[in-house]
Structure formats: C-alpha cells, structure tokens
Amino acid sequence: MTTDTTPTGLDALAAVERDARAGLAAAEDEPALEAWRTTVLGRSGALTGILRGIGALEADERKAVGQAANALKQDLEAALDARRAQLKAAALAGAEPIDVTLPGRPRRIGRLHPVTQTMRHILDILQRLGFAVIEGPEVELDEYNFDQLRIPKDHPARDMWDTFWIAEQEGRQGPRQTLLRTHTSPMQIRYLETHEPPIRVAVPGRCYRYEATDATHEWMLQQVELLAIDEGISLADLKGTLHEFARQVFDADTEVMLRNSYFPFVEPGVELAVKFRGQWLEIMGAGMVHPEIIEAAGYDPTRYTGFAAGMGVERIAMPLYQVDDIRNFYQNDLRFLSQF
Ligand code: FA5
Predict the structure, then answer these.
(1) Quick check: is 26 catalytic?
(2) DSSP assignment of 99-150
(3) Which of 263, 270, 288 to mutate to test the pocket of ligand 1 (most atoms within 8 A of CB)?
(4) Which CATH fold would you assign to the domain 114-337?
(5) 310 Cα–ligand 1 center, Å
(6) pLDDT tens-digit profile of 95-141?
(7) Span 264-272, mean pLDDT?
(8) Which protein residues are within 6 Å of ligand 1, measured from CB?
(9) What is this structure's pTM?
(10) Where in the chain is the domain with CATH 3.30.930.10?
C-alpha cells in the first residue's frame, strides 16, 4: 500500500484527464490550442510526466497505469484534432459569405496629364514635319539665357523675362551666374555650338518666370523651341511651317493670326495667336534668326539663314481642352484632371 501523498498512478491520471478536458473545452483559438498541447502532451507536459514515472511504480500498478496513460494520450490527441476542426468550422460559419455573382470592382486607371498629352501631340506633329527632338538644361547660365541671345545685362529687354536667379557658380573662367531658364531659346545657342547646318530641331522643356500668375500666366510653363537653319530659309518657310503646325495641332476651323512682335534674337519677329472664347490668345513667339547669332556661331549669315519659334504648351492646351484658366493645370485637383 502506498502512503505517498503525491498523486501517482490512476488517481493522478484521472486528475490530469479532468484538467486536460476542461482546458481543451476552454481553448478558443489556435494559440490557445498550442499552449494546451504543450502543457498536457508536450515534453514537460502533465501526461508526459506520468508516462515517465511509470517505471518507478510497482509491477502490477505499472501495467494498469501504463495502459490507461497510453490510451488517454491517444484520446487527448484525437480530442485536440476534433476541437481544432470545431473551431475552424465555427470561424467559417461566422465569416461573411462571398457572393461570386457580384460584378468586380473597377480599378482606377491612371492617365496622362492634359499638358503631357498636348506636349506629345505637338512633338508628334513636329517630328512629322522633320524636326528632331532634343533637350537641354533647366538650370541655365546667364550668358545662354540672355547675353548670347542679344539680351545684355541692364538692357531693357531683360524685363521681358522676370527671372528666378540661382547662386553664382565657379566656372573655368571665374564665377558664372546661373538661373532657372526663362525660355527654351538658350538651346538655340547651345545647339549651334556643337552642330552644323542644316539644322532642324525641336526642344521641349520646362521654363520658369518670377511673375504674378493670372488666367494666362503661370510661374512654371512648358515650351517647345523650334530652330531651323539652312541655306535659303526665308520668312515664307516660317509662315508655312507655322500655318501647317497650327492646322494640325488644332481643329481645321480654329482661327489663328500671325502678327508683328519683337524679340532681340530674331529679325523680324512675329507672334502667333489663336481665337479662344472670342479673344486672341498668344501661343508662340517666332521670327527669323538674327544674323548676328548665325555669325557668332561661325557661319556666314549671307549664306545661312533660319527661323526660330518658342511656343507655350499650356497655352495650346487651353483651347484644345477648353480650359479658360491656365492655373487649373497645376493645382492637382483630381476632379479637374480626371476629365481628360
Ligand atoms: C519667348 O519665351 C521667346 N523665347 C520665344 C521665341 C523663341 C521668340 C524663338 C522668337 C524666336 P515669350 O516670353 O513671348 O517669348 O513666350 C513664348 C510663349 O510662351 C508665349 O507665346 C506663351 O505661349 C508662353 N508663355 C510665356 N509666358 C508664359 C507664362 N507666364 N505662362 C504660360 N505661358 C507663357
């Protein structure tokens, strides 16, 4: 007879079974089931403890306890699987049913900005007219943006372009003044430095002006510059090119007008305007490249002539998309942008 007070044998087994079944019934999710498995069936679990202690029992008790403990182990393992299945079924029953007949939710598809669409439309036409597309820097040197375009310092013509100046940079020949280019025309000079006539290029890009905004003026605008230089180019070629461009970029019935203008780097200078909502909207400046610019590039201006133009892409987008205030383009209001 054992006098030991620690519950061993069948009594202990009965206590383990009672606690284990209560614990399993109380486990409500997978982590609780796993914790239960560790405390009951794990290496230091209650039932494992009893199985390990069997060797120390009396021979007759050893057999009875051993059989009962092994049977209980199988029982509890089966009970664990059953409880797990039960919890899973309950979770599924509680989930919202999926209605496979519902139509799918449409994904919102991105689109190109109306000014980007206009830019592509413009470049497409210009490329078909024979212009190669090239690009230049937005941070430009004073001398390319102004001086070499015949706009010297302190010349009143500089007032045509209010400028965002940038700190001076140290160049090979001393300090050099930089700025955010006010137009794409500096690329006329840069291109002529490294290329020989015949030249036919289109230069798209952003320009910046330190000026108050209104319905037709932004402080950041996109331009496309045109430069064509060859033997025998005349004002008639400029007129023809601009008319053909306008005919292709707008509807055939859109009214356009070419009128006199002044820019220091062309002679004569013109500008092109388009009729939009009863008013003339200026869309580009243009003219015959000034002979001094051709000469400064190293070519004989009596032999080589050319035309140049600089168009405002937003100004062309306005009549195209019937937008009467240029400021709408860059306010990033999706209610506006998603219309195009
Ligand atoms: C120029 O920028 C000249 N470089 C154009 C040029 C090139 C003339 C080659 C001759 C030969 P202007 O400042 O006018 O010129 O600007 C040209 C076009 O850019 C304008 O016709 C207009 O369409 C657009 N533009 C000018 N300023 C703004 C502005 N603040 N906001 C929106 N568009 C503008």
Answers:
(1) no
(2) -TTSPPPPPPPP---HHHHHHHHHHHHHHHTTPEE----SEEEHHHHTGGGT
(3) 263
(4) BirA Bifunctional Protein; domain 2 (3.30.930)
(5) 6
(6) 777 888 889 888 888 899 999 999 999 999 999 999 999 999 999 99
(7) 97
(8) 183, 185, 209, 211, 217-218, 221, 223, 263, 266, 282-287, 308-312, 314-315, 326
(9) 0.72
(10) 114-337
